[in-house]
Design a protein that fits this description.
The structure is a single chain. The protein has four domains: 1-38; 40-140, RNA Polymerase Alpha Subunit, Chain A, domain 2; 142-231, RNA Polymerase Alpha Subunit, Chain A, domain 2, CATH 2.170.120.40; 233-319, RNA Polymerase Alpha Subunit, Chain A, domain 2. By secondary structure, the protein is α+β, with helices and mostly antiparallel strands. The chain is elongated, with a radius of gyration of 40 Å. The strands form five sheets. Strands 9, 11, 12, 13, 15, 16, 17, 19, 20, 22 and 23 form an eleven-stranded mixed sheet that branches. Strands 4-1-3-7 form a four-stranded mixed sheet. Strand 5 and strand 6 (104-108) form a beta hairpin. Helix content is 16%, strand content 50%.
Length: 320
Amino acid sequence: MNSKKKMNIIDQLKKRSVKRFSLFFAISFVFLIISKLSNDYKQTIKLKVNLVGFEDEILLKNDSSNYIIAYVEAKGFALVPLMFKNSKVLQVNAKKDVTVKSNHFIFDVQKHKFLIESQLGNSYDLVSVLPDTLLISYSKRASKKVPITLKQTINYAVGYDLKGDFKFDTDSVKIVGAASEVNKINTITTEDLVLKDINSKINKSLKLDISDYQNIEIFPKSIMVSAEVARFTEGTVDIPLTITHQPNNVTINYFPKTVSISYYVDLENYNAVNASDFKVECDYAELEENQTYLVPKVVNKPDFVKHINIKQKRIDFIKL
C-alpha cells in the first residue's frame, strides 16, 4: 500500500516538473523573440507609386515598373508586417511632386526622399532608394465642358408650384473620352427627378446619365439640384392689343380691342403685378390668305409669373 502511494507521489512530481519546464521554456522563448525583435535589421521594401491629383483627361498606363525599391533599417517589430506583404503604397501628387512631359510624368526619387521617409513613418530609417528617377507613362484623352439638362417628373401639391428656376451647384460638367465620342455630346441629362405632392423646397442629389455613351467618363458624376416651391394663386388682367407689321395702305377694324389674360403667380409677388408689365401683339404679317382673324400673343410679361393664358384666342377684323 505504501509502495503505491509513493508511486503516485512520484508521478505527480514528474507531471509538475514537466509543466514547470514547459512554462519556463515558453517564457524563455518569448523573451528570446522579444530580444530578437528589439534588434535593428535592414530590409528592402517595394513601394508602389500611386499618382494622385492629375487632370481628368489623363489616363495612366498600367505599368508594372511604377515601383521604387527602398532599403531601410528598422527594429524587428516594425518589419514583422512585411513578412506577410513586402510592399507599401507611396502617394505622389501630380501637381507638386512630379515634372510633366508630353507622354509621361517624371518623379525625381532622390530629390523626394523626404516624401518617402514621411510616408514610411518614424519606425523606418531610409538607407537608399532605387531608381534615381521614375518615369510614369500616360496618354491624354479628349475633353470638353457641356451644359446640364434636368429631367424631371414633379407633381406639386394643390396650390403650389415652382418659384423661379431650378439651380445646379455647377453650371456644366466635364466629359472625357475618345474625341469621336466627345464631339457628339452637346449636353448631359440627369437621371429623372421624380417627386410627388411637393409643397416645400427641393434639394436633391442627382446622378448624371451617360448610359447612351460608350467609353465616356464624366466629372462630377452627380450634381445637387435645388429649387424654391411656393404657394401660388391665379390673377387676371386686361391688356390692350397692338397690331404689328400692318401695311401703310391697309386700314382695319378689329374686335376686341383688349384681351383678358390669366396668369399664375406666387403670393409674395401677387401685388407686384401691373398691367403695364404685359404686352400683347397680333402680327399682321402672319395672316394666311383669306384668313379673317388675328392671333394674339404675349410678347412681354413679368419674369415671376407663369402659366399665361389669353382667354380670347382670336381677334376678328375687317378691312376698311
